[in-house]
Design a protein that fits this description.
This protein is α/β, with parallel strands linked by helices. It has 2 domains: about 140 residues, Rossmann fold, CATH 3.40.50; about 230 residues, Dihydrodipicolinate Reductase, domain 2, CATH 3.30.360. The chain contains 17 helices and 16 strands. The strands form 3 sheets. A 7-stranded parallel β-sheet has the order 3-2-1-4-5-6-15. Helix 1 crosses helix 15 and helix 15 packs antiparallel against helix 17. The longest helix has 17 residues.
Length: about 425
């Protein structure tokens, strides 16, 4: 197998290492890797613990990805016999890399979509889906929005809904609510994601579905207190707009209400910046001809995401005390029997609270969010590619259980536990009407 990554980052370096290990565990030939990058100097920063991976990796250094997009045949020798092209750079390159995959007849995957635009909000369709029929026609697969959330969380929701379809009694999903926890306790300020990306996402007006209608709220409004499984105490969570909102509504249009919330101390920091108007797009000092908004300046001066070697040293020196990621999805159900109905709630999700255990492993240097993201993406992609059932077209994770079956889901969930990512499934409450 040959994996081609466009860009190197915190999640993709984890993903590449996991793909290497998965090929070894399943007796597939040693995979090869190609990393398309703008600056080769970043290689050592992200792969300082990945000696075996580097032995099987090549690097294509280009000034701009556009050089490849405009003249793909010039780079044919690099992409020949590739199994999959993976966009691990920014989402704006998704479509161009997909078109490149069509040129070289390879599969495609990515980790995120560009959803923060009026076009996406109005159409409720990912840009990648515009190429669905092209991938189908060429018997190629495009797995989009891989990771942990979006990604594995969608898959777990899809698995439960597929199960409900097979019950002897009519079962309706009345509401889906996803709650994310991103919490780190550290002596130093540490971001799990690039701060400029977090600023854009959290200052965007969150959208959600209620009674099948898309609604918007102000950032950091309508907060709730939520008690996450296996986390001590309640957490203030705030509405957020992520790929799951669009993806789940597409796949399960009969669900009238879909919401998403996020909480944790990283989110609290962003909330404080927002409420102090430090994320404002107003021009500084009131000069309309100024090119610098307050938001722009904050993005420039706020501490950047730490490099993997620094993150590894923070763990070793006990600067990072604890870190926990959790994604919990509540499904509110209505189960109809002959003469009565039952209102029930199920909770499914993932938890990663073993971050400090990554010390002295090839994953030392990942963040507590990039690790489960990279692992979730690698497992989903790998087991879909090597599975007995072949699928094609543009596919999101929640559709995989129906397409690939229960055995495939169980195998993937067991592998998640091998990588210290826990899973939970709880029946919360029932009420008979």
């Amino acid at each position: 197998m040959k994996f081609v990554f466009f860009g190197i980052g915190a999640a993709s370096s984890v993903m590449a290492q996991a793909l290497l290990e998965l090929c070894g565990k399943t007796s597939i030939e040693v995979p090869s890797f190609l990393f398309v990058i703008r600056d080769k100097s970043v290689v050592k920063k992200y792969f300082f613990q990945h000696e075996k991976l580097l032995q099987n990796a090549k690097f294509l250094e280009v000034e701009e990805f556009d050089n490849i997009f405009k003249n793909p045949q010039k780079y044919e020798s690099y992409f020949k016999n590739a199994t999959v092209l993976i966009n691990s750079s920014i989402p704006e390159f998704n479509q161009e890399i997909m078109k490149l995959a069509l040129v070289f007849k390879t599969h495609y995957s990515d980790l995120a979509s560009d959803i923060y635009s009026s076009k996406i909000i109005d159409n409720l369709q990912f840009e990648q889906q515009e190429l669905h029929h092209e991938f189908q026609k060429n018997s190629l697969l495009a797995l989009i929005n891989l990771g942990i959330s979006p990604g594995v969380t969608n898959l777990l929701i899809g698995e439960r809904i597929e199960h409900f379809h097979n019950l002897p009694h009519k079962t309706k999903v009345k509401k889906i609510e996803i709650f994310l926890l991103e919490d780190i306790r550290s002596k130093q300020l540490v971001f799990s994601w690039a701060p400029n990306v977090a600023i854009e996402e959290l200052s965007f007006r969150p959208a959600y579905f209620k009674q099948h209608k898309l609604k918007r709220v102000e950032p950091f409004s309508n907060s709730l207190s939520y008690e996450f499984p296996y986390f001590k105490g309640e957490v203030d969570v705030y509405p957020v707009f992520q790929e799951e909102i669009i993806s789940l509504k597409q796949s399960f249009p009969d669900v009238p209400e879909i919401r998403m919330f996020v909480g944790g101390n990283e989110v609290e920091l962003m909330k404080n910046l927002y409420q102090l108007n430090l994320l404002s797009h107003k021009y500084c000092f009131g000069y309309e001809d100024s090119q610098a908004s307050i938001n722009t300046i904050i993005k420039e001066v706020i501490p950047k995401m730490k490099s993997p070697d620094v993150m590894a040293s923070y763990v070793k020196e006990k600067i990072i005390k604890t870190a926990q990621f959790c994604a919990a999805a509540e499904l509110s159900l209505e189960i109809r029997f002959d003469e009565y109905k039952v209102q029930s709630t199920e909770l499914v999700g993932v938890i990663f609270d073993s971050y400090l255990d990554l010390e002295n492993t090839p994953y030392s240097g990942a963040t507590y969010v990039s690790y489960p993201t990279g692992i979730g993406a690698a497992l989903t992609l790998f087991y879909t590619l090597v599975g007995k059932k072949k699928i094609n077209g543009v596919v999101t994770s929640e559709k995989l259980p129906a397409l690939l079956g229960n055995t495939w889901c169980e195998m993937l969930k067991r592998e998640l536990s091998v990588y210290k990512i826990g899973l939970f499934h709880l029946m919360l409450q029932s009420q008979t009407d």
